[in-house]
TrEMBL record:
Source organism (scientific name): Hominisplanchenecus faecis
Record-given protein name: Uncharacterized protein
Domain of life per record: Bacteria
Organismal lineage: Bacteria, Bacillati, Bacillota, Clostridia, Lachnospirales
Amino acid sequence: MLQKTVNVNGVEVMFRSSATIPRLYRLKFGRDIFKDLAKLEKSYKGKANEGAEFQIDDLEIFENVAYVMAYHADNSIPSNIDEWLDQFEMFSIYEILPEILELWGSNLQTDIESKKNFQKVAGR
């Protein structure tokens, strides 16, 4: 489990990533977070290089991922994503997405290392 506090337009928001995130995301939104984050990361890299805008579905994926990671860190936040988003005047995808992608990547790296260590211990 990894956590990171990010300033979102003057509001300190804790985000948390762990092996539970894919399940929480699937239960809440009925989607695969691995596919969604891969699409989002590809769009982000393309947009950063071209200076273009994100598509609406990219923004929705970003909001959903941010919400699930924030709720996983602090389940006292609203259980409705719209109520949660309402607390922010602006929610810059360009500022927050790199933080979320870094947190997610760190979590995946930790999972891979844990599996490698388990295989060594298990004699596989």
